[in-house]
Design brief:
alpha/beta; Rossmann fold; ProC C-terminal domain-like fold; 2 domains; 8-stranded mixed beta sheet; 13% strand
Length: 270
C-alpha cells in the first residue's frame, strides 16, 4: 500500500508514525505540508517524502488521507481533484460530509470518512469509520489498516452515525479529563497532597477503564461489585444519583451530537 497525507499536523503525524512503528515502509508514504519547518521535521523524524503542494506529490498511491482543518478542506479538495485516479480518499476532518467533499472533488465517489480521537496521538485511540458504497472491499481494508496504526476501529453503516461517534468518543476525552479534574480536586480538598491527588485520580481512572476493557461483564455489573451495602461507595453513588449526574452526561453527549450536525451544515455550505 502506498499512501499520501494532505496535511502534516498532529493526526497525520500520529498515523504515519504509527504505521512506521508497525513496520510500514516510510518511503511508501508522502506528506503534503505547506510549512517548510514542518516538512523538515516530518522528513527528519519519520523518513517520509514531503511536498509543498498536492500536485507535486501525484500520483498518490492507493490511499489519500485528507488531514487538513475542516475550514481548509474545500481548497484542499479542489487542489487534489485534477490528480485523482482511483485512489481511496479518506477524510479525517471533523464535520465534513462526504456529499460535500465529493462535490468539491468534482463528483469523485471513492470516499471514506472517519472520526478519530486524541488518544490516537499515543496509539490508544478509537476511530469511527464509514465508507461509501463505491469503495471496494480491498480499499475498506486499507482504510482500516491505516487507522488501526493508532488504535481501534469501529465501522458504522450510516454516515449520520459519525455525529454521535463524535459526541461520544471524539469529544469523550474531554469528559474524562473533566472527571479526573473533579476527582483530583476532591482528593486535595480532603487533605491529600497535590501530586499524590493527581496520581490517585489518573491511576484510578486508567485502571478502572482497563478492567472494564478486559472484562466480559457489563460496566453496571462491575460497578455493583465495588458497591457494598451500607458502604462508602453506596453513599457516593447515592449522591451522584440525587444530583442527576448520569442524566447530565447523557444531555451533554446529546448537545455535542447536535453541534456536530450543525457543524456539518455550516461547513458544507458553498
Amino acid at each position: 500500500m502506498d499512501l499520501t497525507f494532505i496535511g502534516g499536523g498532529n493526526m497525520a503525524t500520529a498515523l504515519a508514525g504509527g504505521l512506521a512503528a508497525k513496520g510500514f515502509d516510510a518511503q511508501r508514504m508522502k506528506i503534503v505540508e505547506l510549512l517548510p519547518e514542518a516538512r523538515a521535521r516530518l522528513a527528519g523524524s519519520l523518513g517520509v517524502r514531503c511536498f509543498e503542494q498536492p500536485a507535486a506529490a501525484a500520483p498518490y498511491g492507493d490511499v489519500v488521507v485528507l488531514a487538513v482543518k475542516p475550514q481548509q478542506m474545500r481548497e484542499a479538495a479542489r487542489a487534489l481533484a485534477p490528480h485523482l485516479r482511483s485512489e481511496l480518499v479518506l477524510s479525517i476532518a471533523a464535520g465534513i460530509r462526504l456529499a460535500d467533499l465529493g462535490r468539491w472533488l468534482g463528483g469523485y465517489a471513492r470516499l471514506a470518512r472517519c472520526m478519530p480521537n486524541t488518544p490516537a496521538l499515543i496509539g490508544a485511540g478509537v476511530t469511527g469509520l464509514y465508507a461509501r458504497a463505491e469503495v471496494a472491499p480491498e480499499q475498506r481494508a486499507q482504510a482500516q489498516a491505516v487507522l488501526e496504526a493508532v488504535g481501534e476501529v469501529i465501522w458504522v453503516d450510516d454516515e449520520r452515525l459519525l455525529d454521535p461517534v463524535t459526541a461520544v468518543s471524539a469529544s469523550g476525552p474531554a469528559y474524562v479529563f473533566f472527571f479526573i479534574e473533579a476527582l483530583e480536586r476532591a482528593a486535595r480538598e480532603l487533605g491529600i497532597e497535590a501530586g499524590a491527588a493527581r496520581r490517585l485520580a489518573i491511576a484510578t481512572f486508567r485502571g478502572s477503564a482497563e478492567l472494564a476493557a478486559r472484562s466480559s461483564e457489563a460496566p453496571a455489573t462491575l460497578r455493583e461489585r465495588v458497591t457494598s451495602k451500607g458502604g462508602t461507595t453506596e453513599r457516593a453513588l447515592a449522591s451522584l444519583r440525587s444530583d442527576g449526574v448520569a442524566e447530565a452526561i447523557v444531555r451533554a453527549v446529546r448537545a455535542a451530537n447536535d453541534r456536530a450536525r450543525e457543524l456539518g451544515d455550516e461547513l458544507g455550505r458553498d
